[in-house]
Amino acid sequence: MNTLERLRSGKLAGSRRLTLACGLQEFPPEIFDLAATLEILDLSGNALSSLPADLPRLQKLRILFCSDNQFTELPAVLGQCEQLSMVGFKANRIRTVPGAALPAALRWLILTDNQIEELPADIGRCTQLQKLMLAGNQLRALPQELAACTQLELLRIAANLLTELPASLLALPKLSWLAYAGNPFCERRGMAALTATPIASIHWDRLQVQHQLGEGASGVIHQAQWRSSEGVQLVAVKLFKGAVTSDGWPQSEMTACIRAGAHANLIPVLGQVLAHPAGVNGMVMPLIDPGFRNLAQPPSLDSCTRDIYAADTIFDLTTALRMALGIASAARHLHAQGLMHGDLYAHNILHCGQGTALLGDFGAASFLAPQDRQQAHALQRIEVRAFACLLEELLERCSAPADSAHTLQTLTHLKTACLQEETGARPLFDEIEQILMNLAAV
Fold first, then answer.
1. C-alpha dist (Å) from residue 96 to 115, 121, 123, 252
2. pTM
3. Among 39, 257, 286, 314, which is 20 to 30 Å from 73 by CA?
4. In this structure, what are the phi and psi dihedrals at residue 435, rounded to the nearest 5 degrees?
5. Domains of the chain by range and CATH?
6. How far apart are the first and last CA of the chain?
7. Which of the 8 DSSP states describes residue 288?
8. Does residue 284 contact residue 208 with C-beta atoms inside 8 Å?
């Protein structure tokens, strides 16, 4: 991390990226000494409540993070920064978003965990917007003008006060990753799903927590020993954090995991934690074979919505087909259970290298209304586009023998059908699964 002293001494001259987290209450004017080169500025974790009127002097600035500060309004000066394409003001106290604060080049806007009650109609001018993160606010509606954001691919509106899901969202031609749980219009669905799905309770005293396996936005996963009536076994225990995440409430994730039920390409839930001494919610899951690894890494600042694969990633056609079939089957199963995964991405998939794939991370999952068949199918077709992105990535990294032209052609046509911008023309997962099963049987 950079320091204010190094900045003031001139030691950071020529820097393209600057990170300062040192209790700042005012914007350091020395930052302007980097105006000729600075592209990424991270001022998160300070006590800022305003930005200078001459911020556009940072003429190359394209990414600005000001999360965990004390802003009550998104600064209007942002809209004057011509190159600014990514703006992050998570976990502030923002109530107001002026239309003038939205840069013309905006691709990625993060306003998670604030107090925003409405968005300006000017959001419709952000025609390059791909990623919009609004979970954990006080939105009661979305502006109709959002329908003009035809490049929007990822939308997080969970944990707000929305009384209905705007129908206009269902027609956005590129929307692929949507999370809306924890709003009044769908709260009853989650409660009904949890009530309808029996799940074992595992007392905390029966668990001996060992080392940490990983940590995500919603919780921490530990390896543990579980003493049950069948003996002692190694398990994974996920303990949820209480705060709202970029996807929504951790409670919604736990409910979705339980509701998902059993499927060969999902990580099962053995039970929920009972009587944690601090009242923390948790789940117990089987310990995954260490031979499994993440298929990809999450999107970068530059890729925005697309995952990052290792440069040497390559699959044979049989392996790629098996993974695609497994994930399509899991997605079909989830929608049959009244669930939308919401984050169907390669970075949420574990694979063993031989074609077996496990879809995890239900942090963005949302509940469907089964009685509204038209809406349920429209939401499924949003997720179908996410699957198409995954299929495209697999095909780009696939080595295929000369005699596999028919299989490749069929997969390419399937990808194209799932990507088409006329959302109602996309196939559903039962059709996708059948096509892939027929290919796998050849």
1. 8, 13, 13, 27
2. 0.94
3. 39
4. -60, -45
5. 4-152 (3.80.10.10), 197-286 (3.30.200.20), 293-441 (1.10.510.10)
6. 55
7. P
8. no
Q: Looking at this protein, which amino acid is placed at residue 92?
A: N
Using CA atoms, how far residue 316 sits from 211, 394, 416, in Å, is: 35, 10, 21
The predicted structure's pLDDT at residue 320: 96
Residues of the chain with pLDDT under 70: 1, 189-197, 402
Residues 6+ apart with CB under 8 A from 115: 93, 94, 95, 137, 138
* DSSP symbol at 239: E
SS3 state of residue 219: strand
> Residue 434: in which H helix or E strand, if any?
helix 429-441
CB-CB neighbours of 328 under 10 Å: 27
Parallel/antiparallel/unpaired status of strands 271-274 and 282-286: antiparallel
Q: How far, in Å, CA of 365 to CA of 335, rounded?
A: 11
Residue tagged 């590129």 (tokens): 174
Confidence (pLDDT) at 191: 56
| Sheet strands side by side (includes 108-110) | 17-19, 40-42, 63-65, 86-88, 108-110, 131-133, 154-156, 177-179
What is the spatial distance between Cα 93 and Cα 48, in angstroms, rounded to a whole number? Answer: 11
Answer yes or no: are the C-beta atoms of 179 and 366 closer than 8 Å: yes
> 156 is written with which tokens?
């997080």
Predicted confidence at residue 240, as pLDDT, reads 87
Question: Which residues are CB-contacts of 276 (< 8 A; sequence separation ≥ 6)?
Answer: 204, 239, 282
CA distance 353 to 295: 9
Whether the Cβ atoms of residue 355 and residue 382 lie closer than 8 Å to each other: no
**Distant-in-sequence, close-in-space partners of 423: CB < 8 Å, separation ≥ 6:** 170, 171, 172, 173, 378, 381, 382, 385
- The closest of 64, 135, 147 to 103, measured between CA atoms, is 64
Q: What is the pLDDT of residues 308-338, one digit of tens each?
A: 999 999 999 999 999 999 999 999 999 999 9
Nearest to 256 by CA among 361, 169, 408: 361
The first and second tokens of residue 268, run together, are 């099962």
Whole-number Å distance between alpha carbons of 339 and 257? 10
